[in-house]
Every structure is written in C-alpha cells, then in structure tokens.
Automatic annotation (TrEMBL):
Residues 1-22 form the signal peptide. This is Transglutaminase domain-containing protein. The keyword RNA-binding does not apply. The keyword Transport does not apply. SUPFAM superfamilies: Cysteine proteinases. InterPro entries: Papain-like_cys_pep_sf, Transglutaminase-like. Residues 80-194 form the Transglutaminase-like domain. Keywords: Membrane, Signal, Transmembrane, Transmembrane helix. The chain crosses the membrane at residues 247-269.
Length: 273
C-alpha cells in the first residue's frame, strides 16, 4: 500500500439565488442561514459552514449533529459500533451505507444555489425518507459524524474544489494509499460520491495540489469564533510547497471575484437605464 503525506485546501466559486430553502432557514444579504447563524451557501468567512479564512478552516456545520445536538446520524454510528466489533468491517459498513443511499447531486440542481451544505441529520432524514441527495461536503459531514459516533478518529479534508472525510484506520489493508496527517500515517480517504468507490479509494486529482484536514477531536460549541480552532495540519505532498496563509487567501479571492463581477454588471445596467 502506497504511503503519501497530506495537507488540504478548498477553492470554491459560488453564485447566489434569491430563494429561501425552508422554514428552518432565513435569508440575509442574499444568502441562506440556519438557526445557528451558519451560512449554508458559503464556506468562507467566520459564519460560513466551513469557516474558511486566510488562517485556516473549521467544519463548524459538523457540530450541529454532535454533542447535545446529536440525533439520527450519531445514533446510526453508535448502532454500527454495536453491530460490527471488527473495526475494518465496521468502517466499510458505514461507508457503503452512506455511499449506497445518497445520490450525488449538484447543489444547483437540488437547491437552486451553487453551494448549499446540509448537516448530517438533514441528510440522514432524507435517507430515512428514501430520497437522499447531496454533493461532496454533504457526504463528508455525514461520514465524519457517523465515524465519530462509531468510535473512530475522523477528520474533514479539503482539496481544491472538493471535500471528503478521513478515518484513522492504520490496520486497514485494502486502501491503495495510506495518508499521513498530523505526522501520523494510517489515515484512510473516505470518498463516497461515486457508486463504485470503495473505502480507501483516493482520487488522482487530490495528488496534484495542497490539502488541509481538520480532525474532529472533541465536541465543540457552535459559537462563532474570531479565529478557527482545532488542529489544521498542512503536510507536504508531491507538489510544490505553498505558503499557508497565501493559499487560504486565494480561496477568499476566488470567492470575492464573482461578487465584484456582479456589482459591476449592476452598475452598468443602472447607467444604461
């Protein structure tokens, strides 16, 4: 099994739609927020669902389904822990449970927004109803929540334009690549967006750039922080090393540019009228 090192970052361009999603959300400045005050249509910023800033990131949306907020997804993870004592088998069962019950669907098709993140219990409820759809961050959050409940160390990992979950499983021999995170090897990539993807399948595009991961070590509160907390570990990969802060700054630039373009178009239209 090949071993490489890992560090993660995400680049996202988003567009906004004027429509609200449901009564559990509210609209503010053209974006959608949940009742915890977390923006579901934007990963960037201290109120974004991944709190991406130039300093790091924190998958705050995961904590909506942990601790005192734990519900369906966490209970499922605990049930897998009871049913499957073997850690490798249990990890596979959780993975295939999510992979086979959620249909990959882009947010724009499902919600009318370029970005709209679901928390673990929202997606779990749709699984119960038999109509679960989601994209990469939805799979990642649900898997991380269930793995945490099932007794694993787990993390959310971000690469350019993509998100996935990691599970610490050094004894697992079926993965084609073993990842190193926080100077520990044995982390396994959990990429459930493809119907035929097995646990441990690692997309080649993830090898082409930098990456960062955030381990969900403890249950954190949902209060917005001035700085992302937790362990955010950049680790050199095969590609050219990039400085930490400028890389996250690039994320913010990729988000701001579309907004500037929209403002410019509005100004042009107003002048013509």
């Amino acid at each position: 099994m090949k071993t490489i090192s890992l560090s993660l970052v995400w680049l996202i361009c988003l567009a906004l739609s004027p429509e609200a999603i449901s009564q559990n959300f509210y609209q503010k400045n053209g974006e959608i927020y949940d009742l915890w005050g977390i923006c579901r249509t934007r990963p960037q910023g201290f109120d974004g669902y991944f709190q991406v800033t130039e300093r790091g990131f924190r998958p705050v949306i995961a904590f909506e389904s942990l601790g005192s907020n734990a519900d369906i997804a966490y209970r499922w993870g605990q049930e897998f822990l009871e049913l499957y004592p073997d850690s490798s088998q249990r990890a596979e069962k959780i993975y295939t449970f999510v992979r086979d019950r959620v249909r990959y669907t882009q947010d724009l098709s499902q919600f009318g927004y370029r970005e709209f993140a679901q928390n673990a219990d929202e997606l779990a409820k749709k699984i119960q109803e038999g109509n679960a759809q989601g994209d990469c961050e939805d799979y990642a959050i649900l898997l991380a929540t269930m793995y945490k409940a099932a007794g694993y160390r787990t993390a959310v990992v971000l690469v350019p334009g993509h998100a996935a979950a990691l599970v610490y499983l050094p004894e697992y021999q079926k993965a084609n690549i073993s990842l190193t995170f926080n100077e520990e090897s044995g982390w396994i990539w959990a990429e459930a967006t493809g119907r035929n993807n097995p646990l441990g399948w690692y997309p080649q595009k993830a090898l082409q750039g930098k990456a960062f991961a955030y381990e969900i070590e403890k249950i954190e509160d949902l209060a917005l922080k001035t700085e992302p907390g937790g362990k955010i570990a950049p680790v050199k990969g095969k590609s050219r090393s990039l400085a930490f802060s400028p890389f996250f700054l690039l994320i913010l630039i990729m988000w701001i540019l579309p907004m500037i373009g929209r403002i410019f178009m509005v100004m042009v239209v107003r002048r013509r009228s």
